[in-house]
Structure formats: C-alpha cells, structure tokens
Sequence to fold (325 residues):
Amino acid sequence: MGSHFIKYILVKYPGYKVINFDKLTYAGNLENLREVENNPQYKFVQGDICDREAVNKVVEENKIDAIVNYAAESHVDRSIMDPDVFLRTEILGSFNLLEATKNFNLKKMVQVSTDEVYGSIEEGSFTEDSSFSPNSPYAAAKAGGDHLCRAYFVTYKTPIVVSHSCNFYGTNQFPEKLIPFFITNLIEGKKVPLYGDGKNVREWIHTSDHCRAIDVLLHQAEAGNVYNIGTGKELKNIEITKLILSEMEMGEEMIEPVKDRPGHDRRYSIDCSKLENDFGWKAEKDFETGLKETIAWYKNNPDWWQPLKNGEHAEYFKKQYLERK
Ligand code: DAU
Fold:
C-alpha cells in the first residue's frame, strides 16, 4: 500500500520531496517503485522504524515535516504463527515515530491503522467512538500503537491523526492476502482454501481510494482526530471467491473448504460518515471493476508474483496449507 501512496503523492504534489523509509521485510518490494526511482523528488532509505536512532537521523537529515506511517506487519495469519515481530513493529515502531514527530516538531503524523482494532460486529457498524476489542495478535498490536497515538496527542499535543481502514485490494499486493492469493492460485491451476464456512464478512477498498483518503487526512484533518476509511462494500468471503471464479471462468469445484483461522473475526463494518461529512471524501472505485482490473494485473504480471509465492516464501505457504488441512 505504501508504494501506491508514494506514487500518488509524487504525481499530485510534484513539489514535494518523499522519503521512503522502509526495512524491506518480506512484503516490501522496490520493484513496485521502479518507475519513480530516478525521480529527484523521491529518495529511498533502508531502515527500521524500531531503530530510534535511524528514525531520528532520517527525519533530521531530510528536514522531514510530516510522517505517514504505513510501516506494519500486516498479515493476521502470520501474527498467529509468530506474534513477536508484530508487537515490535506496531507498538515500538509507532512509539519511535511519535517521539520523532514530537521532538522534531513535525507538522503532522498520520497513523495508518485498521478496522480490526474494533473487533468483530454482528450487526451495524463501528464508529470512531467505538471501543477497541482486538482479537488477533495483529489487531492487538495495532491497537497498542493507536493507543500511543492518542496518548501523545492528549499529553504532548503531538499532531497525530489516526485512520482505521477496511481491507485493501489492488495491484502489487503480496500474494498472501485473500484476493491476490486466490487469483494467483487459480492462475496456477490450484484450488483456493476458504476458511471455515466462508461466511465471514469483510469491507473492501481499492488502493486508489485509500490514497485519496490518506491525502485528505494528511492535508486537512485536525490533529487529535480519528477517521474510519471504508466504502460500505461488504462481502462474504464466499461471495468474493465466486466473483473471482466467475471472472476467471472457473467453477466452484476450485473451492477447498479448510479449517477456520483461530479467533477468526466474523464481520468487520465501519461507519465512515465522519470522513464524508468533514471533507466530502467518498470511495470512487466500483468493486467489480476494481476486481476485474486486479485479476488482469496478476494475469499479466506473473514475473512479479511467482518468485514471491514459489521462491523464498514457498515455506510459509506450505506451512499455512498444512495448518489448515
Ligand atoms: O480489515 C483490515 C485488515 O484486512 C488489515 O488491517 C490487515 O492488514 C489485512 O491483512 C486484512 O486482514 P484480513 O484478515 O481481513 O485479510 P486476509 O486477506 O488475510 O483475509 C480476508 C478474509 O479471507 C478473512 O476472513 C480470512 C479469509 N481467508 C484468507 C486467506 C488468506 C480465507 O478464507 N482463505 C485464505 O487463504
């Protein structure tokens, strides 16, 4: 998601200088930024947000005036297998960025967070005033980072805005998430493992709409505010699976029902009327169109995802598969 935002900002604000500070963990991929690597307004610095000195150095040396924190360990299944790194990145990493924002008097920090901090909701939607009820190590770690943001605003007036977003989809997404995982499996002629009864509900936003929302928060939102970023496009996992199958002209025999994810949240739903009322922001991308484009992109770019899925990460996918058998 971070690479989409960098490209979006460089086009929309050609006068801005963008520093991409990234540890390049398994999901980080400089290939996604190939088209801007020679842009004089863009600079890549390899570093870890958990390293306080490195964060301070990059902020000071580049006279940074705002931070957008897209850095996260983001995959729920991985957080169940190995939570340590999630706690470090989400909590300690956010803490270091808050400290830098405070100590170097930055104008703004936007914390990109998730609707998962609110937990699961059977009916209705979470608002920004709903309490946190995280159910996975990933969601709990994100909630920890978000609580620190709140505390820094209340205690130090650090200029922080927190966003809680629904599920992203689009191009260049690491093929472990539902949509790219299923698309790439089907391209490879493999079945798609649907967890539990397949009736868990997620709300979906295209990467382009998410970029527009973070742009609004960065430039217009008042410090201390929290915003939900959603679309109202809620779908059961089985419904998405059928849409993908139909677009790829394949049948339901390609679905493999597997063991459920432990602690699997049943439904996420967020009310994002605050974002709409305050700034007139609305999602623009129609889901079916976005999904078609995403499928086409994965079909046309096997060189991007095949090494990720079958190379050094093959072990993860194998482990996941055995876990769910
Ligand atoms: O809600 C926002 C969150 O969405 C983000 O904060 C997270 O970083 C992001 O990973 C995502 O979390 P989910 O757990 O909802 O995404 P995931 O793509 O892993 O799974 C979506 C749904 O599909 C979920 O109900 C589990 C199910 N699923 C997932 C995979 C990978 C399957 O049925 N089979 C699968 O193989």
Q: What stands out?
A: The chain has a mean pLDDT of 96.
